[in-house]
């Protein structure tokens, strides 16, 4: 009986050893399918490389073309071009106009007694006329606006300007240039009244609006015998040409 039990025990021991060896080979019951199925499951859950648009985690393939980014880049370029064009147009137009305005204001002033020399000379033709000559003695171009405001001695009224003599544009004098105005002193047919001889003449200048102050007046000399005038006294607008001043 003892021999049978021993043999039986030896057989059980051999079986246990074989089971242990199989477990170490990775094919025994201790594996219980835990590792391999899990690995298989993980592989099945893995997204196909380069096809998951939601995560963008694909590897080994070229990612989908980003058309949105491409369009955005083009849009940005168009915006830049548009802005450049706008700036160029606006810049050129705005800056050019501003510069022209600044140049005009910097180089042109009103002609008056402070920057001109004024002379008054009676003429033989037309009859009973006098010529006013204004010469720019300054360093800047000046404008002779409207008509001279003429005053003999202490007269209390202002002679009118003949509207038909108004020029197309303001008379402008560069340094050294002259402008002119004609003065009708008295009626050739003697129809004027209140005639008298004046010894002093004052010529006032107007600003850029009618009857505004244009600056310093001038007091050109008159002939020693004086100048005769009556109620017909009138003047022309300032002219660029002497013939225009005396054609009225």
Terminal CA distance? 168 Å
How much beta, percentage-wise?
Answer: 15-25%
Strand order of the largest sheet: 2-3-8-12-6
In this structure, how is the largest beta sheet organized? 5 strands, mixed
**Low-confidence sequence ranges:** 1-104
Q: What share of the residues lie within helices?
A: 25-40%
**Helix/sheet category:** alpha+beta
Determine Rg (CA atoms, Å): 55 Å
Distinct helical segment count: 4
Overall form = globular
> How many DSSP E strands?
12
Provide key terms for this protein.
alpha+beta; five-stranded mixed beta sheet
Question: How is this structure best described in words?
Answer:
With 248 residues, the protein is α+β, with helices and mostly antiparallel strands. Helices cover 32% and strands 21% of the residues. It has a domain at 116-246. It is built from four helices and twelve strands; from the N terminus they run H-H-H-E-E-E-E-E-E-E-E-E-E-E-E-H. The strands form four sheets. Strands 2-3-8-12-6 form a five-stranded mixed beta sheet. A three-stranded mixed beta sheet has the order 1-4-7. The N and C termini lie far apart (168 Å).
